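Ticket #4471: structure output looks truncated?

Reporter: J.K.
Steps to reproduce: submitted the chain below (365 residues) through the standard prediction queue, then opened the result file.
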Amino acid sequence: MRRPGARTGAGDGPRCSRAVRIGAVRVGGGAPVSIQTMAKADPRDTERIVRQLRAARAAGCDIARVAVPDLTAARSISRIRERTGLPIVADVHFDHRLAIEAARCGADGLRVNPGNLGGPRAVRAVAEAARAAGIPIRVGVNAGSLPKRAGRPVAASVSAVVRAALDMANEFFRCEFFELKVSLKAFDVPLTIAANRAFAAASDLPIHLGLTEAGPPLSGAVRSAAALAPLLLEGIGDTVRISLSGSPAEEVRAARTLLVCLGLRKGGAVVSCPTCGRTSAEVVPVARRVEHFLEESGLSLVVAVMGCEVNGPGEARAADVGIAFGPRGRGLLFEGGVVVESAPNRELERLLMCRLRQAAEARHG
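Returned output as attached by the reporter:
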């Protein structure tokens, strides 16, 4: 039998990772790519954490992580899990005893950092606690906090990041603990891509994708898409977090949008023109309102909002439903590839929203 975590036949087809379970969510083993986020409040402020994570769940979150800097935070995990309905992963640094307490207090998973967990005794103690609780561990490697070598800091590089992940995975294997997943994160996009590719070629452990600190919502979402999309299209990555300087719900919406764009998750999409001098209506606010409705309703439809006669009819015809504003105050409503109504431009949004509400009502019975 091959050693757990070692990959064989790396060039013979798509990567097939091992599977772990975080609460009711299966990660790896061909399961759909799941979406994660992290609470962004003082661990002692349980009410605020619950509000954040409920909003994240409504946006499509599958798994949430909470910081565990002390025993109070570790002991709040079960309450947070019960009140949010989400699997909770305890994020532990510097003190392995907090990971042990979190496992005892109902965490669905642990995240530990090879750069600061401690030596072999700490690894064994955490492995034993996770085994007793029946939960997995994420070996979370960050380029900014790599394990020291001979007591000296290690510069971030692809080989250093991959080595840190493999070394700690092997430490857990020596403890006969195999319920692992791994993340290899940096701010640098090329480094993140190369490190995850290298690790995927060397191991079949499930991979959590993300950047350590992507940035504010717009630039962070773009940076994350640049890093994660190539990997996901190659079949690398079993769960994702887009780490933004924003709310957990914003992170989830960004991740969900990325997965929908890549065809890895069902969801609605708005096809809207960038507008130009030919635009004969206010496309931008209409498109935003349509996008918001799709998010709230959960409809998996492609909806077109087009501003002129050049590409408008073609794009609206190709969508599930769409509108094309016209140059002389009248436009068209399309559904299923055919024109279902010609109406004044000022009426098109109302007609489109009426169709979408009907679809939402039919979906929800």
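Triage note (M.O.): checked the attachment and the full token line is present. The chain is about 40% helix and 20% strand.
Status: closed, working as intended.
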